[in-house]
Amino acid sequence: MHKKFLNNKLIKNAVSLGILQISNYVFPLLIWPLLAKFLGVENFGLVMIVFSILTLAYMFTDFGFNISVTHLVAQYYNDRQRIGVLLGNIFLIKLILSVIVSVATTAYILVELSDKIDLLALIFINITIFSQAFHCIWFFQGIERMGVITKVNIIAKIGYTILVFIILSLYQHINVVFFCFLINQTIVAVLFIINIYKNGFFVLNPTFKGSWRELKYSFSFFISRISVSVYTTVNVLILGHFLGTSIAGLYSAAEKIYSAVNGVFGIVAQTMYPYMVKTGNIKLLCMVVGLLSIPVCFMCYILSLYVEEIILLLFGNDFLSANELVKQFLFLACITFVSFNMGYPAFSAIKRVKWANYTVVIGGLLHLSGLFILIILNQVNMKNVLLMVIFTESFILLCRIFLIIFFLRNVKYI
Fold it and tell me: Where would you say this protein principally sits, based on its record (predicted)?
């Protein structure tokens, strides 16, 4: 009985993702103090702006495949030939998108950050765009081999941490951060591709027809991910543009703490998504989310009592003015925990996965409208931008709950 329990895929995947998310929490705790100490608030903000650009670049080159292809790989797990062609099609699309995104990124940096980013940094940034495009977490999530994702990421993070610690202590320049990140992303891409073959799969020649089909199928997921970027990544760019890199640095510091907490809470959604695709057991999902919501909120409350100590430990005195922001981000983490699980896991269980995309698109448009109003009224500041994020995430959660209840009561609705 115990052996059967331990062999359960869901449990194994949850443990692997748990280890991964802990590593996502531990390694940044080692790196952030270094960046804050050696770079200062202004340069830290500049690095965060560039990382925001790279995050947007990744969203474009990923094109929603992290959701759509996870679903397809899980669905056609036993058809190696079909998955091989699928991988070839996806990688071809990613290569083409990387070229387009690289050109667009270069143009943006030359216009917006030419006085802060030199040619060497620009080269590092562009190579990183190509490297991160070939990360295929979606594949290993689809075949439910979360252990591969965990091993690859931990190896890369250890290397990145060591590189940053050694080089940045000797040469304190933002280019060091970009170079180390490039090495990190390249190692991850290479190891993922190697592990595709080690797990008995392979990449086959792509076809134009197949690539076009995957592009069309993933379009709604892509729109969803871009919509998410409107109320996440874009905020740092907006603050950096209107208020400078120092303000962007403070906001990013608070957001990093939120991301670490959110990453730990995200274990549930990442584990449940492929499981819900296969089983459709939404009652189990609701039970798990309901049971975990109370400890999640309690944990956020406890963390809010020690915000100043956390900021001092991670970033130093210069970042203490982000105190209230962190508390608001912790409140937001309680909302997003439920929202994430009521997103793709829940909608895939009731065979309405695209509706999760629609809620995000509506939320993105709402947030974009709010940001536009703040700009018009000259009210762009850290507090107002974060309040807009909280409002947007709350709206998305309510929409998802309403739609799930509606579909469950109207099973014949198309």
Answer: membrane
Q: Give the model confidence (pLDDT) of 24-42 as tens digits.
A: 667 777 787 778 878 888 8
Full-model pTM: 0.76
Domain ranges of the chain: 1-218, 231-414
Q: Check residue 249 and report its DSSP letter.
A: H
Residue-by-residue DSSP string for 171-238 = S--HHHHHHHHHHHHHHHHHHHHHHHHHTT--PPPP-HHHHHHHHHHHHHHHHHHHHHHHTTHHHHHH
- Judge whether 342 and 312 are in contact, CB under 8 Å: no
* Cβ neighbours of 267 (radius 10 Å): 21
Q: pLDDT tens digit string along 106-143?
A: 999 998 888 888 899 999 999 999 999 988 888 887 77
Q: Which backbone phi and psi does 330 adopt, to 5 degrees?
A: -65, -40
- DSSP 8-state assignment for residue 82: H
For the chain, report the end-to-end CA distance as a whole number of angstroms: 42
Structure tokens of 97? 């998108």
